[in-house]
Sequence to fold (322 residues):
Amino acid sequence: MVQESKKTIIAFFLICLGLTLFPFLIGGYWLRVATGIMMFATITLALNFIAGFAGYAAFGNVVFMGIGAYTTAILMVKAGIPWWIGIVAGGLLSSLYAVLLGLPILRLRGHYFAIATLGVNEATKQFTLIYRDLTEGGMGITLPLTSLSISAFNNLVYFIMFAILLACFLTSYVVSKNRVGYALRAIRANEDAAQMSGIRTTYYKVLAWALSAFFTGLVGGLYAYWFTFIEPANVFDIMIAVKAFVMMLLGGGGTVLGPVLGAAVLELISELVWGEFLRVHMLIFGAIIVLVILFLPSGMMELFRKRYSLSALLSNLKERSI
Fold:
């Protein structure tokens, strides 16, 4: 067991080292692709707190990306605040928004909660369209351009996105191994039984949604700084939430590594499909969703786990026969 833990730690550090050296080994296009993969990996990992661990389908989770993006943009443009303060403020405001909304909304369950989160996303989107003095409405907000060169700026965004992903991954790992993770899994399995056993279900659900909102808000703020222009249509886009759900299901909801794996695989497939099949890429994306639901309902991590268990079983049988 100790040997396996050492191997896991070594593999983790080697992967981190590889990702650190990645920008210095590739060109601009693939650096942008890698940054996009890490962006979706973080969004999916963040969604996993509430949807994977707790089992609450937050289809409107993209609202926190929009809040993070607009917080960063408004602070930079209207108040002259540095970009990094704006990104952190976006994450914190998103988390506060989740707490205030979670207290009433997380009392709903199943499809009622899913529909409520969709309504929250749409209502927040409409707010940005109506209050033009603050958000510029449908015109969008153009952020100040950086003084860095294009190459240096892309590297900066890559490393910040990597840092956010790493922080989200480590937080997810810690949560999965302590009482918060156990409580959330109990809620997912049977919320009434968990409540009767003394688990403060509302507290843990709100905590999970606040963590999800915080990291999604950070990504939204960095997205705004990266693209230097945002509008309600692209930062409150429900397709981002749908894509994150598919990535989570593909990798394995409720696991730590699954959402990252699912995001990497699906984003690479999307990139290839977009380039080769421009007119039918949404058709192919829909087919992937159907195939995942039919053949990988528990995700790739469960498939790997079963394969590993089968190998271990055969090995034990072979040793016994000898």
Residues 310-314 have pLDDT under 50 and may be disordered. The radius of gyration is 21 Å. Residues 27-237 form one domain. The CA atoms of residues 269 and 285 lie 9 Å apart.
